[in-house]
Amino acid sequence: MTPLTGLVLLNILNLIDAYYTYIGVSNGYLVELNPLMEYLLVKSSFLFFACKIALVGLASSFLYLRRDHTLSRIFIWFGCALYFGIGLLHAFHLSNL
After folding, report:
1. Are the CB atoms for 53 and 18 separated by under 8 Å?
2. What are phi and psi of 96, to 5 degrees?
C-alpha cells in the first residue's frame, strides 16, 4: 500500500474516533483521556472536531511531504494501527452498553 492510502485511512480512522469519542463523552460512558481534547470538548463540540481534524490533517500533510523517508512511512502505519486499536476499544465499549 502507498503512503497516501495510509494517510487517507489515518484521517478516516481519526474521524471515526472523534465521532465515537463525542458520542461516548456526551452520553457519559466514555472519558476523553487527552486533557486538551477534553477541554475543547467541554467548551464546544465544534472546537473539538475542528482541532482534531486540523491536527491530524497537518500531521498528515507533513508526513505526505516526507513520504519517501522510511521514518515517515513507519509513523503513517503506526498511526493507522493506533487508531484502529482505539476503534476496537470504542467498539468494545459500545457493544457492552
Report:
1. yes
2. -95, 10
Asked if residue 80 lies in contact with residue 10, where contact means CB atoms within 8 angstroms, the answer is yes
Q: Are 13 and 83 in contact (CB under 8 A)?
A: yes
Pull the grid cell for residue 54.
486540523
Q: What is the pLDDT of residues 55-69, one digit of tens each?
A: 999 999 999 999 999
Of the candidates 66, 79, 62, 72, the residue with the CA atom closest to the CA atom of residue 14: 79
Q: Are 5 and 80 in contact (CB under 8 A)?
A: no
Length of the chain: 97
pTM of the predicted protein model = 0.90
Q: Which residues contact 57 (CB under 8 A, 6 or more apart)?
A: 11
